[in-house]
Specification:
This protein is mainly α. About 75% of the residues lie in helices and about 0% in strands. The mean pLDDT is about 80.
Length: about 130
């Protein structure tokens, strides 16, 4: 097993030397070549900020031309609508009282269920 692995390693090393010689010959023919890591830097994450600005400007220009062709007025920045009135103090108080009544009823119903469960549990234990 070890003999097979060493022969494979030797073959790969020979191939590596042949490839290195071929690469150096190609570099000599072409002249000075920068390493691949410098020449082909890839960008991850999509568009550059400058590209995004150019694209958005082109889209604004395109839509403005389309609106002008349709005869629509130019778009104005949207303004937020005025806030509507909230709940009055009286309404808030009534809502709070109603919620307290609802929760009181729920707690009372829950207490009845618990006493029924306790009675059943004591009957089964006896």
């Amino acid at each position: 097993m070890a003999g097979i692995l060493t022969s494979i390693i030797k073959q790969l090393e020979r191939q590596e030397r042949v490839i290195e010689r071929a690469l150096s010959a190609l570099r000599d023919v072409e002249g000075t070549v920068a390493p691949a890591s410098i020449t082909s830097a890839t960008r991850k994450g999509g568009m550059t900020p400058e590209g995004r600005k150019r694209l958005s400007a082109a889209l604004r220009k395109r839509w403005a031309a389309k609106r002008a062709a349709q005869g629509a007025p130019p778009a104005t920045p949207k303004q937020s609508a005025p806030r509507k009135g909230g709940m009055t103090e009286d309404g808030r108080r009534r809502l709070a009282e109603a919620m307290k009544r609802r929760w009181a009823i729920k707690r009372a119903g829950s207490a009845v269920k618990k006493t029924v469960r306790k009675k059943r549990a004591t009957k089964k234990a006896a």
